[in-house]
Design goal:
With 444 residues, the protein is an all-alpha fold. 83% of the residues lie in helices and 0% in strands.
């Protein structure tokens, strides 16, 4: 039996503590994007639109590359639960760096293609250069962004949740300060556009977080009496061979999930400005609400990784499902009850809150299926089942998108386009449940 330390032992208190940390992290990450938008807003609506589009595309691109972060964090959680962090961490670091180098080359190749792709897609010519500036910088800093993210995850997995949050807070402050300096001081002349300046501020904040986080992680390991050793080349090679399909599979699932959310909204855009405005409000409220279940999913992901070092996988899954389910159910009921006030708060005076409220309820109708789909996907990520994850996410295109198309273009229903997502989630959850059962059967 591997040693169990306080932060790897699954209790209601430890789960709640990790989930609360992840909730704070989620809001701080969202807050960084909000700060960027607020800082550029005084420069005019064209810049707001360009930054909004640039961030939207950046999320889509980085959602694939973030598969590496999830793949590494799952393996590190398994090592931490088994008491093998000091041996496994150097292997994971070298294997991750090798794949990260490939991703960075892909990012550098993709950066010059952004402007031609946007032009071919018929985007506003006024926006194209600024969006290309923003994405070019972000893609150029891909390796830095992912490494900083992995470092923060490693701190949380190794029990230093407060330190990881403090490092992110340092990045938040740095991002705010650099936004101001790069946009509103003499430094602004260094950048080709305000959008490029904001992107460099993001990269600068990550450049601050990375060494601070790496030093904190090193000091944590030293305090625990664990000094990383030189990894074996053969072990790194074995790790890399399994890391590539896992990271790409998880990343592919992220992209498909993202497209499954975006495409129905694009279809609804054909129903007119009122439908678009109502959908935007409902989506914003639902996205903010989802930070709660998402924080629980991330906590479940890490604690299941800890348990992979022992024989109690099924008990752990049942316990994690109860904990995460209780938070999701209670918060979901509260969100539905508060829907009129939540929607009104984001509607302002120019959006009819009634259709927005119904669209928010359409999102919430799929919450049970969404819960089991996301939770089981996290468990299978720990088992390195990247192929299963990306395959089930293809149901987005086989089920969710066609249903949304029919709802909009046949029935003229924005509600149906959003509610139809539940069917895809339900089918995916069933497939993932069967895959998880087979995984347990094969491993005893």
């Amino acid at each position: 039996m591997p040693p169990v330390t306080d932060h790897t032992r699954l209790t209601g208190r430890s789960f709640a503590g990790f989930a609360a940390t992840m909730l704070l992290v989620e809001f701080m990450v969202v807050g960084m994007g909000a700060v960027d938008l607020l800082m550029i807003a005084p420069l005019g609506m064209v810049h707001v639109a360009a930054l909004g589009l640039g961030d939207l595309l950046a999320v889509a691109l980085f959602s694939f590359f973030a598969g590496l972060v999830h793949a590494l964090s799952g393996r590190l959680a398994v090592a931490e639960g088994a008491g093998e962090t000091v041996r496994r961490l150097p292997v994971l670091a070298v294997a991750g760096a090798a794949l990260l180098a490939v991703f960075q080359v892909v990012g550098l190749i993709a950066a010059p293609l952004v402007a031609p792709a946007l032009t071919a897609a018929g985007q506003d010519p006024l926006l194209v250069p600024a969006v290309a500036d923003h994405l070019g910088v972000r893609l150029g800093g891909l390796a830095l962004a992912l490494t900083a993210s992995v470092t923060g995850v490693a701190l949380r997995v190794c029990g230093a949740k407060g330190t990881a949050t403090a490092v992110l807070a340092v990045g938040f402050v740095a991002n705010l300060a650099l936004d101001h300096a790069f946009l509103y001081t003499g430094l602004a002349v260094w950048f080709s556009s305000p959008e490029a300046a904001v992107a460099w501020a993001t990269v600068g904040a990550q450049a601050v977080m990375l060494p601070v986080g790496a030093l904190a992680l090193y000091r944590l390991l030293v305090r625990r009496g664990e000094r990383p050793v030189r990894p074996c080349a053969r072990e790194v090679g074995r790790e890399l061979r399994t890391l590539v399909p896992t990271a790409c599979g998880i990343g592919g699932r992220h992209v498909n999930d993202y497209m499954g959310a975006v495409l129905p909204v694009l279809f609804i855009g054909t129903l007119g400005a009122e439908a678009v405005a109502a959908t935007a409000v409902a989506t914003r409220v639902y996205t903010l609400y989802c930070r709660l279940p998402q924080s629980c999913f991330e906590a479940a992901f890490v604690f299941y990784g800890y348990a992979r070092g022992g024989p109690d996988a099924r008990w752990t899954v049942r316990t994690l499902t109860r904990y995460a389910g209780a938070v999701t159910a209670v918060s979901g009921v509260a969100a539905v009850a508060a829907a009129p006030w939540l929607v009104a708060a984001f509607s302002g005076g120019g959006v009819d809150p009634e259709p927005a409220r119904w669209l928010f309820l359409a999102y919430m109708a799929g919450l049970p299926a969404y819960f089991f789909d996301q939770l089981r996907a996290r468990f299978l990520s720990v088992h390195r089942r990247g192929g299963v994850l990306v395959a089930t996410s293809l149901l987005t295109y086989a089920v969710t998108v066609p249903l949304a198309w029919c709802a909009v273009f046949v029935w003229g229903s924005a509600f149906g386009a959003i509610a139809g997502r539940a069917v895809g989630y339900a089918l995916s959850a069933l497939c993932l449940g069967r895959a998880l059962d087979r995984q347990w059967a094969s491993t005893g």
